[in-house]
Structures are given as C-alpha cells and as structure tokens.
Amino acid sequence: MSLPENTFVFQRRLGFPHPVAVRGERIYIWDADGRRYIDASGGPIVVNVGHGVAEIARAMAEQAAAIAYVHGTVFTTDGLETYSAQLARHAPMDDPRFYYLTSGSEAVEAAVKFARQVQVARGEPARDTVIARWGSYHGATLGALALTGRTSMRHLYAPMFRDQPHIPPPYCYRCPFGATYPTCDLACARALETEIRRQGPGRIAAFIAEPVSGATLGAVVPPEGYWPLVREICDRYGLLLIADEVMTGFGRTGRWFGMEHFGVRPDVMAMGKGATGGYFPFSITAVRARDVETLRQTHGDFNHGGTFSHHAVGAAVALATLRYLEAHDLVAAAAVRGSYLGRRLREALDDLPCVGDVRGIGMMWGVEFVADRKTKAPFPPQRAFARRVGDRALQKGLITYPGSGCADGIAGDHLMVAPPFVITEAEIDEVVTLLREAISEVFEEESRQ
Ligand SMILES: Cc1ncc(COP(=O)(O)O)c(C=O)c1O
C-alpha cells in the first residue's frame, strides 16, 4: 500500500511513493502490504537500540499517563533528574549539566547561543562568531544551516542567515590541501588557527565540528592528532570547543561518545538521534557546570527556551533507552559487530570500480562512489548515483542512507550503512550482499549511458 494520490501530507520526497510503515522489530520494518525491510541505517542514523523495544514503549506510556507535560521553567521530574545523573557518567565532559530540547538542530543552536553568552558573561562581547567546517552537517534550521558546510543545502537560504566562517575538513581521501598524512602536518587542524587569526582572535566564540563527519561526508574519521591539536588551538585562543555528537553519540562509533576515541574533552556537546533511538524527539545540549555558574552570576539565566524543552516523556524515554544500551552492553556490541560490518563491506565492495572508499568506525560506515577510481572524479551530480543506489536497495528491501556533496559540496556521492547495534553477523552478511547487488546494478545502468 503506497502513498494515496490525494494525500494531504506534504511528504519529504515529493513524487516518491512512500510505503506505509506499520510495525518494527529489531532491524526490521514491515509495511502495510506485509513487505519486510532491513533498516540498515536507522533512517538518518537514529535507531541504535533497534525497533519495537517494549520496555521503552512502556516507559513512554507510563510517563505520559502519570504526567505528560510540565513547563521546564516551573517543574522538574524524576525522570529528568535520574536521566541527567546517569548521562553524566557517560558524557566525556567535566562536571556536565544538560539542557533538553527536541531536535539535533535545536541542540546545536542552543550550543552556539550558550557559547556566545558565556563569552559575553566573561567580558568578551566581541566574540560573536563561530567557526565551523566545510563538509559538515549541523541541522536544517537557519542558525544551524549557517554552520553546516554543505553547499547544496545552503545556497537557497544563504541570503537569510548570518554566515559563519568555515575551514576545510579532515578528509584524507580527498585531502583539501592535496597532502598525505602524516607529512601533511595536520594542515586541516592548523587551518583553524589561520582562520582565527584572519577573523581576529577576539571575535571568535567557539569552534564546532562533528567528531566523525556524518551526513555530508559519510563517516569520515579524522587522522590521529587532529582533535588534540584542535583542542590546543581552542584553548590558546579562548574558544569554546563544541562537539556535535548528534550522530556519533550514544554508542554509534563503538564508544558512548565519538570524542572518546580521540582523548579530547569538549566544552559543549550537542546530542540527539540515539539518545532516544527514534522513540521520541529529544535532544540535549551538554555544558560545564562552571560555565552555567558564570551565566548565573552575570546574567541570571541562559537566554534561551522552548515550549517542549526538558520534556517529561522525552526524559523517560531517554532513560529507558540508556538503560537498555547498558543492560544489553550494546555500545560494546556496536564496536564488535561494527568492525565486522566494516570488514565485510571492504571485502565485498573492493572490486567494484565505482567504489572509491569504504570508511568508518564502530557501527557507522560510509561508501563513497566515484566515476573513476584513479582520479577520484565524482559522478555528475545530476546522475544522483547514490540516491539511485539507495532506491535500488530499497526495492530489494534494504534501507540505507544515501548522500551527496562529499567531493565539493555539490558533487560527490556516498551512502551510509549504520544499522541498529542488535544486528547479527548473518544479518550483516545479508545487508552487504543486497548492497553489492544494488550498487552493481546501478553502476551497470550508468555504464550503458
Ligand atoms: C551531526 C548532526 N548535527 C545536527 C543534526 C540535526 O539534527 P536534527 O535533524 O534532529 O535537527 C544532524 C542530523 O542529521 C547531525 O547529523
């Protein structure tokens, strides 16, 4: 049963016949026709604990029945307090405090507003700019879009936001400096210092980046030494370091948070997606207690808000999700089964001439497609190669997360494979087989063009 012709829903993909989803369990989704799909990406890398977890649904229902909504300026709830204490054990930050919102974009916006307000409170009101990176994704709202480094998403709205400076990403497969690690001397990290000096050191409030590049580059892991050098530069110039862990958080990389791989503690973190594994829209901005205290003493409060902030049901769902991750040791499972997934993807796709790179970490993998393996020339963007592979995989009952723009913001095709952590090795084999078929078929079609 597909989208009816006369739908009143303004669908996400216009003209695309959306099947009607009716049920989910572990890595599987069923539609109204009884067709089964393997959700090998958890949508846009959201579903970490898997679909259909009864205890999470129960926690949601119990909280909603007890008290669904109270305003965050008046009440707190047991769930919110317990969850925050539990999360503090995992967040790689010094004495963290958590501010709750509903989407990753909102968590990012709160993070940059907080950084700005802290700088003002410290007596540095000229620090009104946040440096971000090209090849990044921080969200679709106008403030988050000003930070996002994906040209194809920005150009229509660019006249409507105050743009922020961007530096090149750590992307060794297509090094923006034409260099090779380690002789590059981490030019991508040093670019931060260059940009700070160019803008004027007293003007920069913060630097924001994804620990591992997500939707725009497709699971690109920075080289060793990158994050410690960035941390050092931020400290030297008085910038707050914001880690956008919206995609990498809650076990996706095989550790609780992506920054743990690099031994660096951020000053602010944005989280979302896996916090509730898709069961409820919920996001988190983590900050240091001492910065909250600075705001309290100078301005009295954080100048921010939101009707659905600090949501009672969201907190109950997040607590149940965190407990499920812990009880089933799923972060460790993401590391172990994720490395199996990476190995199988590399083995199975290696001989396909259109596969330029397979990269990733934990349960977060990216496959980059190229028209020419030697020159790394991308397919023309209008061929929508990754999108077609994603659609072909869907026809085969496999859900992946295709993306574009990795080469230069517009051209460049990649596809992410990032299933729920409960996937088995046999299921990973099936994912890899179906994906290989989909890529081969689309490449064959493309070759006939
Ligand atoms: C790293 C990162 N930041 C922010 C966002 C925005 O999150 P949301 O779509 O929930 O607003 C995303 C979403 O893909 C993301 O991957």
Summarize the structure in words.
The protein is of the alpha/beta class. The chain has two domains: 21-52 and 329-448, Aspartate Aminotransferase, domain 1 (Alpha-Beta Complex), CATH 3.90.1150.10; 55-327, Type I PLP-dependent aspartate aminotransferase-like (Major domain) (Aspartate Aminotransferase, domain 2, 3-Layer(aba) Sandwich). 37% of the residues lie in helices and 16% in strands. It has helices spanning 42-45, 54-66, 78-90, 104-121, 142-147, 151-154, 187-199, 226-237, 289-298, 312-327, 330-349, 385-395, 425-448, and strands at residues 21-25, 28-31, 36-39, 96-101, 129-133, 166-167, 204-209, 240-244, 268-271, 283-288, 355-361, 364-369, 398-399, 401-404, 413-417. The strands form three sheets. A seven-stranded mixed beta sheet has the order 4-10-9-8-7-5-6. A four-stranded mixed beta sheet has the order 1-2-3-13. Strands 11-12-15-14 form a four-stranded antiparallel beta sheet. A hairpin with a 2-residue loop joins strand 1 (21-25) and strand 2. It is globular. It starts with 20 loop residues before the first strand and ends with a helix. The model has no long low-confidence stretch (mean pLDDT 97). Pyridoxal-5'-phosphate binds next to helix 4. Pyridoxal-5'-phosphate binds at residues 44, 103-105, 108, 137-139, 210, 214-215, 244, 246-247, 272.
